[in-house]
Amino acid sequence: MSTYGRVTNDWFLRYAAAPRATLRLVCFPHAGGGAAAYRRWAELVPESIEVIGVQYPGRQNRYGEPVIDDMTTLVDEIVAAAERELSGPVALFGHSMGAVVAFEVARRWQAGDSITVRRLFASAGPAPSARRSLGVHLRDDDGLVAYVRELGGDAELLELDEIRQLTLPMVRSDLRLIETYRYAAGEPLNCPVTAFVGDRDHTFTTADARHWVLHTSAGLEVRSLPGGHFYLDDQADRLVPMLVERLLPR
Description:
alpha/beta; 8 strands; TesA-like; hydrolase; Thioesterase; AB_hydrolase_fold
């Protein structure tokens, strides 16, 4: 196994063998993040669920590959990779930027016939139709670091010159992707959506989460957990069982 997981293709990382899995939980990282954020989740799910982390280019085991700063291109690539890798029922979890990437992937899969989306978990990310650009990707490097610090991210690491030079271009590219994204109206998802909010996240509140109701015909649930924008870093032991509870029949 590699540092980041068992790579079956460049896009999907698995952290534990799951030969008895009947459903796959496909997890989409935030801007500047990578699939390794979901590594521990594989230890927290039953054997009937397989955790798969989506690895965007330009980070972790894909460092050195060109980053993708356009939503349509990113979704095209993920969907094409999934044709060779996934089938059957899946659930999608996306955090911040990843919530919208997961939504757009779910729309594509819903229009096909090989993958069935059971549920979308949208974490700390505004609904596609409610997104507004703050122009963060246009700020200078210090402005970008200040934004990461404001969200509660690892801004201290970005104070180190070597890490800043390696990381900031990728962060900027991801922010450009999500800030230039424009929602195109279409059929709502036919699966339920559960939106998760950190109770101290000033960027995404329960009121913001309710906008996701516009993007599903199967119902919206909003849940809050302790923490800020990156609440899931400290709340995996509470969050993952909540996902499992909504995915497995009782």
